[in-house]
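## tool: complex_structure
## caller: assistant
## args:
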Amino acid sequence: MLKILKYSFYDLSRSLWSYVYFFFYLLLGVVLLFLNNDLSNAVITLMNVIIVLVPLIGTIFGVMYFYNSREFTELLLAQPVRRSSIFLGQYLGVAISLSASLILGLGLPFIIYGLFQSGAIWDFVSLLVSGVFLSFIFTALAFNIALSYENKIKGFGLAILLWLFLAVVYDGLFLLSLVYFQDYPLDKFSLVASMLNPIDLSRILILLKLDISALLGYTGAVFKQFFGTGLGAFTSIGVLILWVLLPVWRIKYISAKKDF
Amino acid sequence: MVVLNGLELKTPESGIIAVLGPNGSGKTTLIKSILGMVVPQKGEIEVNGQRVKKHWNYRENIDYLPQIANFPGNLKVKELIDMIKDLRGKEARDWELIELFKLEPFLQKKLNNLSGGSKQKVNLVLCFMFNSPLIILDEPTSGLDPVSLIRLRKLIQQEKENGKTILITSHIMNFVEEISDRIVFLLEGKIYFNGTVEELKTSTGEKDFEHAIANILTGNHA
Amino acid sequence: MCRFFLFIIFVFASVVSRAQEIEVCKTCEVKTIQAAVDMARDGDILKIKSGIYKEHDISIIDKSISIIGEGLPVIDAQMKGTALSIRAENFSVEGLKIINVGRSHTSDFAGILVSNSKNFELKNNRLDKVFFGILLERASEGIILGNKITSNAKSQSTSGNGVHIWKSEKITVKNNQVIGLRDGIYLEFVNNSEVIDNLCKDNLRYGLHFMFSDHDLYKGNVFENNGAGVAVMYSKFIDMHNNKFRKNWGSASYGLLLKEINDSELRNNIFEDNTIAISADNTNRINYIENNFRNNGYAVRIRGAVYDNNFQRNNFLYNSFDIAYTGKLNNNKFSNNYWSGYSGYDLDKNGIGDVPFRPVSLFSYLVNKTPEAIVLLRSTFIDLLDFSEKVSPIFTPANLIDDQPLMKRIQW
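## result:
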């Protein structure tokens, strides 16, 4: 698998899009820090970027890479290589290169800015951790879609719909149900509903750093326990890991049965 | 979709076996099943006494030439060859073959920029550079110029003399007639004929190979 | 004037010349503080040498004496009541350590109880494990300076206040540290007093609590991690300058709670990381000028019956919600503030944004109705919702705007 990973990574490192992605983050980091000159502002803007853009890029890039590397995949399938190694290797190649673009693109300007001397370092770390998780999750979801649909147009469409649903629509429905059922105790429901959407989940992980004062304003005991202790961060990371593992497991499962 | 159904085929240790049949008869599916790219719903496939299903290391003993030479376009020819060598981790005679097919000028070119014929040559190098006992060739002649065709024919003969089993599909009948020891004729996913070229001719009563094949086909449709 | 001054010096000198020093220690002639107090006369100085004195209810009545601890002598009240109880004029208590003050549901036991007194100084004492720390009743012209009061308050009913002042005036509370009590500093019916440069930390209820107290000033204090930072209730003419309100977290937690207060001013205060930085309820004619609100859950929460409050030149920086508002606008004004959430432009380059800013978001309304919705904070959907509300307000008061939002942070 490491060899496949190496070559996927190698292949991606020559793709123009990896660089576009990397330079986008680099530019964003530089503009936010050096033109705006305000670390807190930069962190909040980055959060919006990360919870919207990272999943979008992850899905599109994942689907695109999968369809584009069909030839490569077929070549590999005839080689004495385990099937799961091929797909997991390619998946890791995409996910790691996206994460690397994110970490380097944002990390470099922040380090130059002098992040290590600032109190915002943990806010920034939680941003990057969420970003990396989202890259891994949405690339895996994209591979699932691409493995299930031979038709590129269908695959792309579905991937975009999935992103739209998780990034925007889900929260709309979530809010609607909260308002509709406001006479009932909703704290458990709202926590569970956040867990079911990886975007919400990583947003909460960032909120725990950024808006803890507001989160602690709510009276419910469940909330208090969740946000007031380490439980929130702990659970969020745990569920995020699940969100990576389940789609990856499904990649393995489908790819083992699929004909090429 | 059922492509191959009730197919039973055993091949002897060595020699050249041609798998023939009209388009959609299941030739490529048969090959892909052997390679494990297509997972059979029922039945067993064994290569050198090793089961194919859920295994992968038996492929170390197979060299495969895919029908359509699809390669990752971002890579250079040399990189592709190195990569496959790296993946297999076996000794390879790539330089010998590169010389044979006169590929040196293309080594630093990206695969995207290669013509169909050159791609097929790269394909051939990748296939023949390992010394595996089973070689599977899916339409090896497509896109090749006459000179390379002659070289390929020689190469196949050589390999046969080295005691290898070679599985070929091809549309070019005189190529098949000339090199194959045994013909397997597939029709609608079933074996229609399995025997030597001579046996085929006698059984159909045709002198000419191409006519014999045509005879099977028309006989079936009649 | 000059003659009066000379007179004072003369009186002071004559007092000193008659003053007697009484030493108290385990091996001295005088072994207990009470004994020393009993023999002391006006103007005497009691020097308490270091050691542990297991005494309680030491009472000083109508004696103008100075008690000075040398080497931090410890008065251990053994949980039996008040340690030091004073009713006098012109006295001082300095350098003592008082521990283990008794707890009671019926009496307000204190480390130092001062009642019906005038012109005194309580300086550099350390109080630990106390019920009430320093308790003043009907006192005036006193100074409480540089004391450190600590305790381990667990519940409001079994704990007292660090500095508790009742019905007093012209008191200065300065440079004290009050940690782990119920209220850090409590003032009830206290007028013309000052609370300056104190640190109130980890107190159960409020860091500083004003009730029915007028014409007071508090400045330069730090209030951190209290149940709520400061509560100012039923008071008027309070000046609040240069204080820091930090990390007051919790569902009923405020940096500053204003309830029924009038004609006061908040200037140059810093509110950081509070669940609610300021909660205002029934407040009239309050000026909020040049304060910093940073990283709070809510910067300002305005509840009912708030009139003529004026928010000017404040910095609202990265709060989850800038303003939450209940009721009508009521002539309250927001102008020339800096809002980090402002995304308008300044084409004429005069430093003032050309589009007004709406500090109240739709989401804050939703959270008010459905508190659980807070988990959707900063989600894309909510951002879209808030954006559309800002473009055409339906739920939020349309006239609640800062029509001159500043483009740059105010430096003060």
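## assistant note: The first strand of chain C starts at residue 21 and ends at 24. Chain C is about 10% helix and 45% strand. Handing back to user.
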